[in-house]
Amino acid sequence: xxxxxxxxxxxxxxxxxxxxxxxxxxxxxxxxxxxxxxxxxxxxxxxxxxxxxxxxxxxxxxxxxxxxxxxxxxxxxxxxxxxxxxxxxxxxxxxxxxxxxxxxxxxxxxxxxxxxxxxxxxxxxxxxxxxxxxxxxxxxxxxxxxxxxxxxxxxxxxxxxxxxxxxxxxxxxxxxxxxxxxxxxxxxxxxxxxxxxxxxxxxxxxxxxxxxxxxxxxxxxxxxxxxxxxxxxxxxxxxxxxxxxxxxxxxxxxxxxxxxxxxxxxxxxxxxxxxxxxxxxxxxxxxxxxxxxxxxxxxxxxxxxxxxxxxxxxxxxxxxxxxxxxxxxxxxxxxxxxxxxxxxxxxxxxxxxxxxxxxxxxxxxxxxxxxxxxxxxxxxxxxxxxxxxxxxxx
Length: 394
Fold this sequence. Notes:
- The protein has one domain.
- It starts with 17 loop residues before the first helix and ends with a helix.
- The protein has a two-stranded antiparallel sheet with strand order 1-2.
- The chain has about 400 residues and is mostly helical.
- It is built from 17 helices and two strands.
């Protein structure tokens, strides 16, 4: 009597959630608009009124949406052993954070190289550092429901003024790391619900109505409303409203470019700001709507080229690793049970619970090359591609 032992079948991959790609892609487009108008205002003294108002109105929402989507990746990432988990996050987040911060030094002034807080919080790459911190917290608190971590971050943020510590979202202190933590861990907490179906229409409609009123208020006062608890609650509801809309959007052909941009969001996120700085300074054209459109289309075009070149320039977006042999890869894949490394800003969009974001959140003072301070808002996301690479090498 013989016994046949069969290997367990691989678990089928969850259905791909294209709405996550569209959400990330839309956020990236808005990030580019915001950074372009800020750079144009700084160097040329003006930017089109419509772009200024649009950026101000959407400033409370862009980064929270990206962080919410990144948080949805947490549970899947935590299936990895802790050592591999941390190594993957360091490759996909810390490496591009350091590299692209260094890229900005020639543009903004070499003096920033000796300012530790500038590296942490003074550049648009702060988002990657914040994501790494959140993933580390997620690992350390993996036995605690993420909803409790979200509530704890709100409690600490609210308690700061009571302890005599004024909120400083625009300074060198990484206060925004604490403010935005609620959105990351809320994404992790709500992931199981969003996997079951779209956000109900009543919640979507109510959230969008509230978000519209909040956006108009933000545009009117010319900065993000910062009322503790209320600001975070309203913005979180607005993000859920945006998710509800994105979940119901059909896969129209006209939206495919946005979807593609969202699948590769880490590249335009990292590339766009150096391109904008070089274009605005180098061409030095008088500000006008036509010039803004020219800069915007040129930036998008160069971001697309950067995405197409990614197979040859992957080291710019994640720290390169040595290739392992086929047998080692198969064993590693079996051990990982099909859980790819993802971090939020993605190069490939994944199924529900695996998609993540990108733009920055919160304006900060960003010194210019001449030492002047200027406001800027930063954006974000990055995800590993081990699973895709392994499939490609089979």
